[in-house]
Amino acid sequence: MKRVLSGIQPSGQLTLGNYIGAIQNFVKLQETHECFFMVVDLHAITVPQEPAALREQTESVAALFIAAGIDPAKASVFVQSQVSAHAELGWLFTTLAYMGELERMTQFKDKSTGKDSVGAGLFVYPSLMAADILLYNADLVPVGDDQKQHLELTRDLAQRFNQRFGELFTIPEPYIPTVGARIMSLDDASKKMSKSNPNPASYIALLDPPDVIRKKISRATTDSGRDVMYNPAEKPEVSNLMSIYAHCADMTLDEIRARYEGQGYGAFKKGLAEHVVAKLEPLQKRYAEIRSSGEIHSILKAGAERVSAVANETLRSTKEKMGFLLPR
Ligand code: ATP
Ligand code: MG
């Protein structure tokens, strides 16, 4: 069975972008692949996190995985920092990455531009991500469009290792949705929707109550026209809302255009809000049940135990090939 791995940072409230770009595919892939889904807390600390918030968000993201339909009997769900091989292989891959290739990463540029002090961890983020994926020899990595560049670097690092030290790592392929791979911010369609955006009006969180969702959508930026038409180059805001609509209502872009022909943006936004609310309602209900039962802790413990066996074996082979003296 082919292997799938992906992760989400506990760096804020999960958004519809995370759901459409990534989690929705996790749920599908668990039926046909051996899946590893993790909460990447070691990645989240590449920007400052308040300890209590980090702990709460880690538990919350894990519970949302389950609430969204990931079945711990089918997929391994775990927290990155609970499997120490990630940090260790991450360091080994940091030594294989070149400054020049890390400098070219657009996520680093986006997250560091305009900041007074930029942590070194943010710079080497992609080598830790490469380690995450290669530890399990994943074949497929379901991610949003923004992670494509990091995945290409992962492939380069795996090839570099295999050439220098001998064949060990599978070269992973990205698995990116055709529509919705890059959901944009509600207040600025030139930026992707991000859970770490300090302005909550820029995203719809999976746990936003219905009235908050309605308000955010009604205030979302649009152009001065009134035609509900998909044209990302000329109508980026409306096109983005249409992508969200298509996912939440399970309709095609053409069906949505026909549905709102001649009705203007008001009716369209109202319809969109109701579809988003309806889509998230069952997920929010399951989330509340999972959090109150406390079951997430035993799920994460079992997940970490199961994946550690795979991860530690890869780490051992990597160290052997690189020339580390292993204990005898
Ligand atoms: P942060 O702002 O802290 O980087 P994020 O919202 O970008 O948070 P990540 O944890 O970095 O979320 O990414 C988790 C997954 O969600 C990745 O697969 C990423 O590609 C995907 N993703 C993130 N934002 C979007 C988006 N706007 N549209 C589609 N997919 C997205
Ligand atoms: Mg991100």
UniProtKB/TrEMBL annotation:
Stored Pfam families: tRNA-synt_1b
Gene Ontology annotations of biological process type: tryptophanyl-tRNA aminoacylation
Gene from which the chain derives: trpS
PANTHER family per the UniProt record, alphabetical: TRYPTOPHAN--TRNA LIGASE, MITOCHONDRIAL
UniProt protein name: Tryptophan--tRNA ligase
Motif residue range(s): 'HIGH' region: 10-18
Family, per entry: Belongs to the class-I aminoacyl-tRNA synthetase family.
Motif 'KMSKS' region in this chain: 192-196
Single GO term (MF): ATP binding
Main function: Catalyzes the attachment of tryptophan to tRNA(Trp).
Catalytic activity: tRNA(Trp) + L-tryptophan + ATP = L-tryptophyl-tRNA(Trp) + AMP + diphosphate + H(+)
Cell location: Cytoplasm
E.C. designation(s): 6.1.1.2
Keywords, in A-Z order: Aminoacyl-tRNA synthetase, ATP-binding, Cytoplasm, Ligase, Nucleotide-binding, Protein biosynthesis
Predominant location category: cytoplasm
Main enzyme class: ligase
Chain residues that bind L-tryptophan: D132
Assembly and interaction partners: Homodimer.
Family annotation (InterPro entries): aa-tRNA-synth_I_CS, aa-tRNA-synth_Ic, Rossmann-like_a/b/a_fold, Trp-tRNA-ligase, Trp-tRNA-ligase_bac-type, Trp-tRNA_synthetase
UniProt GO cellular component terms: cytosol
